[in-house]
Amino acid sequence: MERITTQAKHKRLEKKILQIFQEEMKKLSEDLQKILADDLVTAFINRMVVFTEIQSKAKASSPRKHSLNP
Hints:
Shape: elongated
Number of strands: 0
Distance between the termini: 32 Å
Number of helices: 3
Strand content: under 5%
Largest sheet: none
Structural class: mainly alpha
Order of helices and strands: HHH
């Protein structure tokens, strides 16, 4: 996942979050729902970046196994 996502993609993800958690978020005002959705999307994107970096470093540092069937 790219470090920088487009604003349109971010907004699409926010709308999906609002739909998925509609029942749980109905207790909040519309403004707070939007803030929470934005925070969740931002956290998800940041976490994906970190995990992707960890995974690529792990692959780069792990010894390569030789195949018996080249």
